[in-house]
Amino acid sequence: MTLSTARRTGGTDTTNAGDRRGEVVVTDIGLDYNGVPALADTDLHVHAGEFFTLLGPSGSGKTTLLRIIAGLLDPARGTLHIDGTDVTRTPTQKRDIGFVFQNYALFPHLTVAENIEYGLKVRKMPGAKRAARVKEMVDLVALGGFGDRYPAQLSGGQQQRVALGRALAQNPRVLLLDEPLGALDRGLREELGAEVRRIQQESNTTAVYVTHDQEEAFILSDRMGVMRDGRICQLGTPEQLYREPKDLFVAKFLGKTNLFPGRITRVDGAASHVRVGEHDLVARTNPAIVGDDVVCSVRPEQLILGGAGAGSPVPAGFDRIADAIVTEVRFLGQRRSIHLDADGIACSIDLDPAAPAPVVGEHVSLLVRPGEIALVVAAPAASAEPDASA
Ligand SMILES: Nc1ncnc2c1ncn2[C@@H]1O[C@H](COP(=O)(O)OP(=O)(O)OP(=O)(O)O)[C@@H](O)[C@H]1O
User: Which SMART domains match (predicted)?
Assistant: First the structure.
């Protein structure tokens, strides 16, 4: 977390306010429902112009945090600053925020143009300026030619574009989006997801986005926070979180991974030596200490196949992490998915479909580049499971 020290200590923050239009700083914000925490005391700094995603399973507290930022929920504790101003108790309509929900929430009796214009009229923007702004928004969300249609005459994706145009028309400091693609089918979600990102970039608006869909979060986000049980468990870029998950929950929630239990035998500056079954490996250092039980998390595309047996050659730059037997080989178009049994551990690896494929029953070894092993400290299995319902 990179909370401004000045703000933390109550000192003068010298950052130019113009540089941080849309900056959101959440400090020790928490909320309980009937004594049960929905959001543990949370710190978060969303940078100006950033596309930030709150990603987590159902019930992890994403919407609660978003609604607090919007002013739709009052936190029990903590403070919220937007552009350096304390807005913790400022009503929603004075926060200068745009909101897009999953269910579009358009006015059915107003046309596309009228829906986008609505908020501008309420704010008494003069007619000519209003018309120009509506046209600008209709173009921005690629709905040119649809201005006179009613919501019922639009597809779900088009309706969500209107909602985006309406939210952005007033040039909000922050755009908050709560599962805006949730009601759309897969293909449309991808297409509109790319559009949401383009529109956010073109309008240079800070976005805070809520989803339980990891792929969506990866496509859209500059940075994201993975939430679980009312807490942000890890913050970072999609790549950081994918490659360096801090715990088993994050490792498993962000896509498929292979988990090999091991024990730290030596920590040597930037390298941790870890014993996995019969194999000694070197991995990047981590918070673990000598003697700790850890889990080596290796993504399917980070493993390659080697020959069976201790004597078989290992290519330079690779370590053997396990011996295994092939249990299934599946052709999946862009990749070939190989399932294996590594002494009771179910593993999978992805191969280039053009490469020679192993056959079921073949004895192989699994090889990995040391730098690609993410070491996570083992947690009790029950609490490490991502919520399968998400
Ligand atoms: N009005 C409420 N009264 C009581 N508990 C609530 C209320 N709203 C939410 N909660 C609880 O607070 C926790 C966080 O809910 P929240 O809606 O923020 O989760 P979420 O991650 O957004 O989930 P989803 O993806 O399903 O929307 C959950 O345990 C939920 O049951």
Answer: AAA
